Amino acid sequence: MSAKFETIDFGAPVNFGVHKFKVEIPTSHNQQISIIEVYGYQGDQRGIPQEEPRVYLQRKSWNAIAECARREFNARLKAKGIKTGRWHSGENFVERLLGRELCVLAWAAEKAKDEEIPIICQKWMALRPEERWWLFMMTVSEAGLPEDSNRGWRKALYYALSDGEAKFNTKRKPRPSNELKADIDLFTYTFTEGQNECAD
Predict the structure, then answer these.
(1) What DSSP element (H or E) covers 73?
(2) Which conformational region is residue 175 in: left (phi greater than 0), alpha (psi within -120 to 50 degrees), or beta?
(3) 196 belongs to a structural domain
(4) In the chain, which residue ranges form alpha helices assigned H by DSSP?
């Protein structure tokens, strides 16, 4: 896999025009972190913009979730033989489906209190990837822009993931696999689709 597809940062294919996300981390600690969806070749067609901001995070909120996201994404990238990434100042590119998962985490954490973020991270990590994708699609349809933090599913994400208390040093119990997704290889699917987009 890693020999076949060249990637940058968190699994984002380097192919020009591929649909992905980018995280802009300013060098100044006083500026917000931006998570932006980049549509690639699909942009500027049928009313689709080239890119669309999904959330702006205060530095403190970003610092609280960044390591959680890095560990989760790198574990899955490593399992697929894909180069792992790290967050750095400037533009960080994230594979399209991982970017959706990151948005779910960021949306839940954007207005959370300091003590709530460990709970949010733990509950986010307990979700299956396809559950995070579903939450993204439900949220983005009506509340997917930075100014939508108090609307619908965006607001519900905060309440759903911040409720309760963090439980450390506990192993997750096994869950039955989702038959509908059992045969999908996340990154094979993503990269193949990305190649097809570039070929169109």
Answers:
(1) helix 59-79
(2) beta
(3) no
(4) 59-79, 96-109, 117-126, 129-143, 152-162, 186-199
Q: Does residue 72 sit within a domain? A: yes
Measured between alpha carbons, how far is 6 from 15 in angstroms, rounded to an integer? 8
Task: With beta carbons less than 8 A apart as the criterion, state whether 136 and 100 touch.
Answer: yes
Three-class SS state of 180: coil
Question: What averages of pLDDT result for each successive group of 10 residues across the chain (200 residues)?
Answer: 72 90 95 95 76 96 98 96 96 97 98 96 97 97 94 95 70 46 47 45
C-alpha dist (Å) from residue 78 to 56, 69, 178: 28, 14, 22
Q: Is residue 184 part of a domain?
A: no
Give the dihedral sign, CA 90/92/93/99: negative
Query: Do the domain assignments include residue 83?
Result: yes
CB 74 within 8 A of CB 84: yes
